[in-house]
Each structure stands twice: as C-alpha cells, then as structure tokens.
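Hello forum,

I keep getting stuck at the same step: I have a sequence, I want structure tokens, and every attempt I make locally crashes halfway through. Rather than fight my setup again tonight, could one of you with a working pipeline run this one for me? It's a single chain of 383 residues.
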Amino acid sequence: MQTSDNIGAAALVDLVSDFYGASMDGRFWPTALAKLRDTLDARICALAHHDFASSTGGLQHAVGVDVSLISSYGDLYLKSNPWLQREDPFRVPGTVLTGMELVSETIAQSSDFARHWLAPQGLTHQLFAVLERQATQISYLLAARLVDQPPFGETEVALLRRLMPYLQRGLRAGALLRRSQNVRQVALDALDLMPIGVILISLGGAVLATNRTARSVLSDREILVIGRSGLELLREGRRVLMRDLVAEALRTTPRNRSAGTTAFSIARASGLRPVSMLISPVRSVGESASWEEPAAVLFVGDPEHAGEVDEARLRQIYGLTGAEARVAALLATGYRLDEIAEMLDVAYETIRKHLKQIFCKTGTGRQAELVRMVISGPGGLSL
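Reply #2:
Ran it on my machine without issues. Output:
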C-alpha cells in the first residue's frame, strides 16, 4: 500500500495521466480505475453518480465488480444503500469519506444493500470521494475492500485527498472536450443538410471535413479528386493542387467586399452543366500555421447534385396544397411552367392558377422571388 507521503512523483503523474486520458476517452477508464484501486489496496474501484433528489444513480465505470451486479447497484439496491441516504456529507466537491464515517456498523450490515450487493462479493469497507456536484447530483469515486482486509483509514483518505484536485481537473477537461466534440458533430450534421457542397481544407491541401453534397461530388471524380498532394482540381485537362489555390486566396486582398475569397466555375468534360466554386480562407490562419491547420473552406455548387425540395415541408411551412407544393418544388428545381404542365399532365392554365395561389400564400410576386425563397429556406434542406 502506497501512502500519501511515499507515493513517488512518477507514480502520481502516471495515475493522474491515466485519469486525464480516461476523462477524454471513456475506453481508458478500466485502466485508470484499476491503477487507483491498486494504489488504494482495494478490491473494487468505480466512477459513479447519484441524484439525492430522485434517489437515482449508478456505476458509470467499474473494475473488480461482479459483472452481474454492476447494473443492480443503481437499479435494485440504491434506495437501500445507507451510505447515500444523507446529502450533507457529499455537498462539497473534493470531500473524502470512509464508510464508517457515514453509517454505523450495525445499520450498515442490516441493510439490503450490504446483504445483497456487498456480501456476495465479499466486500464490506468503503471509501467515497466527491468529484463534482451540480444541484442535487454528484459524481463520485467509490472504492471497497474485502471483509478480511482492514478498513480504510487516514492513510488512504490522505492519499485520495492529495489526488482529488488533479482527478477533478481531469474530469472537467474531459467534459469540456466531450461538449466540444458534440458541438462539432452537430455542426457537421447541420452542414450535411445544406444543398451546397462544403469542404474544409488544410494549408497543405488535405481534406479535413466534408458534407454530404461534397462527398457526392468527390465520389464522381470528375471535377475534384483526392491525390497524394491532397485535394486536386481537374481543370482544362490538367490537375491543379488545391493547396496552391488556397495559398493564392490567402495572399489575395482585393479591395471589394469579397476580399480574400476566390470564385470560379469549372466546365465539365462530359458536357454537363459547369460546377461553381468559392474558396474562402479561414480567419485564424497565421504566418506560423502548419500544413495541418485548417486554412480555407471550399464551397461547391454542382447542379447535378442539387438537393431535392421537400414538398411535404413546403406544405407545412407555407400552407400549400399538395398540387401547389409540387409546382413550387419543380419551379425551384429549374423547370418552366410549360414543362411542369407537361410533366403533371395538366393544362397550362391550371399551373398558372396554382402559381397565383402560391404567390398569395408565400407573400411573393415573381417566380424568381419564389424560387429564391424556397431554395434558401428550410424547404431546400436535404433532411
């Protein structure tokens, strides 16, 4: 058993490092908890949570616990756990308590929790450490020893108290990282809904992120391809490195309001409609940025990969009938009124009547205005 005084600096750093790693990536919790368990000379060690208001909680990660009893800690026996009945001892984050400080031996051994959860595993002595608290909810560390081991004492309490500030910081850092990752994923998911292609490019030309439309364009390998030097543009029979175009955009500072952006269109060898592109440098690129740093966003407008307008959504948003929504969707897709009449096998005048109703319901007065409203609104999202 290592004490608070004799635990080496290397062992302390190793333990804290593992806890930080686990906080960042949950797959490493077994390793981190196993080291803490061994340091405390315990049989089990777990990261748990508890809500005193609802008397709910459970083990989030655990080592040494019988697999069949992990879920029952919170599902079956939490309300009969005498160590978690009083909220006051757990109010201050950083608090470390032994089981004997919370509950008398008589009450402890007579509880259903002790008889049906601790006893089957040969456990009795417990140690608690409050990591975080929000309102009535706490996150805490739990360690427990076997019946034939001595109870946790001042040595273990002092050691855990010494570790707590580092463990708490690791947990907070992990929570911040997870929130950041969640926000990033939501942002990427939102980009997938856009009818225009979006590609995030590094200073070296590598593709860092793409949305659904951009992935469709890349899969065609007609205009954009990913080669050994990163993203490449097929233009007039030759390959142009995107990193060169990004570098040019970063150097260019025109006086107009589109300063820093580079826009152009690419003709297709197949004869299909050209693809329009816009390179917009990111604001955070500095002179010392590495080639792996995000440098620019490439917007790709490909008529062949235009998203379909959702007619059901147009009905919901603007109160259109099914026929009106169909006409509006086809107009936004690029068809003329006479083409729509032929496609729907109705008279041209019928389509004109539908269009008048659409103008009235959407507050528009011209076809161009209607099309702009549809494709720029939520009806044009690729849900």
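The CA atoms of residues 15 and 239 lie 51 Å apart. If your local run keeps crashing, start a new thread with the error log.
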